[in-house]
Amino acid sequence: MVVAEPVLKERLLLISYGQQQVVVASNVIVVLGDLNVYMADNAEKINQRAIEAGNAIYNTAFEFK
After folding, report:
1. Cα 19 to chain center, whole Å?
2. Which of 7, 39, 41, 61 could form a disulfide with 47 if both were Cys (CB 3.0 to 4.6 A apart)?
3. In b/e form, how buried is each residue of 22-59, taking b as 16+ CB within 10 angstroms?
4. Which residue has the higher pLDDT, 18 or 60?
5. pLDDT digit string (tens) for 48-57?
6. 0.70 cut: is pTM over it?
7. Radius of gyration of the chain (CA)
């Protein structure tokens, strides 16, 4: 996500630990993600998708449970 509007950059400043470059930069690139996506409770679902896509074989994907 690219943020260019000054009002939105001011709001980002609050969650960026006060880093002034957030409001000074002409554009700010915001990268979002789920830090827990690879946790154990999601591992089986991720491995199953890899198997279905042909990117893993059953024994290898479930070997590390």
Report:
1. 20
2. 61
3. bbeeeebeeeeeeeeeeeeeeeeeebeeeeeeeebeee
4. 18
5. 887 888 776 6
6. no
7. 19
Two structure tokens written together for 46? 């991720």
**Tokens of residue 5, six digits:** 């509007």
**Residue 3 Ramachandran class (φ > 0 left, ψ -120 to 50 alpha, else beta):** beta
Instruction: Kindly give the residue spans of alpha helices, DSSP state H, lying in the chain.
Output: 6-15, 21-24, 40-52, 58-62
In the structure encoding, which two tokens stand for residue 47, read together?
């491995």
Q: Give the list of residues 6+ apart from residue 2 with CB closer than 8 angstroms, or none.
A: 27, 28, 29, 30
